[in-house]
From TrEMBL:
Lineage: superkingdom: Bacteria
Source organism per UniProt: Hymenobacter swuensis DY53
UniProt binding sites for [4Fe-4S] cluster 2: C197, C213, C240, C243
Record keyword Protein transport present: no
GO molecular function, one term: metal ion binding
Entry EC number(s): 1.17.99.6
Descriptive protein name: Epoxyqueuosine reductase
GO cellular component, one term: cytoplasm
Length: 326
């Protein structure tokens, strides 16, 4: 077996042993097709207050500017779809499924570091970096190029027979490997995600105005939520799963097997009244290591008041978010 084939087989086998659903590999290079799309998206100010999206434009499109001598982008998927008994009832306030358990940044980064270490043990000297939303990497574009799925009309990566409830991460390394190719788009004529979005954030198939997404309003926005979207959030107080919940492909979603993603047992039992009266102590207990900590106690209170139709103080309520670490 040629070294590249052997190394590639080892990486994919080890990734599976670490709990990743799928692993695909692409040749590192400039993302020619994504460049004009990203530029147009930024020019239309669809990133809103997410100023970091406009930074490092060149690095965002070329991983060789992030990792010296980069030759391969290893894309990995990790399932986070919760078991039915952990999911929140429809009539209570809700957080996005990805935030039920421990913050995925920590969970996945540990797995990536292990995989990179094991590659170095097996292959020899390997230079590379691990990425989990921590630098300007277009993770969905690389996952698509490596055949892990196609970009759906809601701009989430969708994998046939699996759906879209998974995290995407990358290892960018300076080793030549065998490369996978993209698969076709299976969205067809379906527009369920476009039709279901209550804030019309999916302005057209395959284009999402990030500044109109419920996830943006409840996580990224640092000011008060504008009244023009009053009554459109349903019960979502952190993130939103609507465009994924209605996607026909997600009927294939299966519960994850990652203990660290297990929800706090009290989360699904909170009533609307419990949410309204949530204390800082309970917030810290429920979301001790959760991604919900990103919006903070004050931010979550703002979101709860908005969803419940209560007036809130004016002015900024959240600290400015830091640019993702390089």
């Amino acid at each position: 077996m040629l070294p590249t084939a052997h190394y590639t087989a080892f990486i994919k086998r080890r990734a599976a042993e670490l709990g990743f659903m799928y692993c695909g590999i692409s040749k590192a290079g400039f993302l020619e097709e994504e460049a004009p799309r990203l530029e147009n998206w930024l020019n239309r100010n669809m990133h809103g207050q997410m100023a970091y999206m406009a930074n490092h434009f060149d690095k965002r499109l070329d991983p060789r500017l992030l990792v010296d001598g980069a030759k391969s982008v290893i894309s990995l998927l990790l399932n986070y779809y919760p078991p039915e008994e952990q999911q929140q009832p429809e009539d209570t306030l809700k957080v996005s499924k990805y935030a039920y358990g421990r913050d995925y940044h920590f969970v996945i980064k540990d797995k990536l570091k292990t995989l990179l270490h094991d590659m170095q043990q097996e292959i020899g000297e390997v230079g590379g970096r691990c990425f989990v939303d921590s630098a300007p990497v277009m993770d969905k574009a690389w996952a698509q190029k490596s055949g892990l799925g196609w970009m759906g009309k809601n701009t989430n990566l969708i994998r046939p027979g699996t759906g879209s409830f998974f995290f995407i991460a990358e290892l960018i390394v300076d080793v030549e490997l065998d490369y996978d190719g993209p698969i076709k788009d299976y969205c067809g004529t379906c527009t369920k995600c476009v039709d279901a979005c209550p804030t019309q954030a999916i302005t057209e198939p395959y284009v999402v105005d990030g500044s109109r997404c419920i996830s943006y309003f409840t996580i990224e926005l640092k000011d008060q939520i504008p009244r023009e979207v009053d009554g459109k959030f349903g019960n979502w107080v952190f993130g939103c799963d609507i465009c994924q919940d209605v996607c026909p492909w997600n009927r294939f979603s299966k519960p994850h097997q990652e203990p660290q993603f297990t929800a706090h047992p009290a989360l699904k039992d909170l009533t609307r009244g419990d949410w309204r009266e949530i204390t800082h102590e309970l917030f810290s207990e429920l979301f001790r290591q959760s991604a919900v900590k990103r919006t903070g106690y004050a931010g979550l209170q703002r979101n709860i008041r908005f969803v419940l139709g209560e007036e809130a103080p004016t002015g900024p309520v959240l600290p400015s978010s830091n640019e993702p670490r390089m």
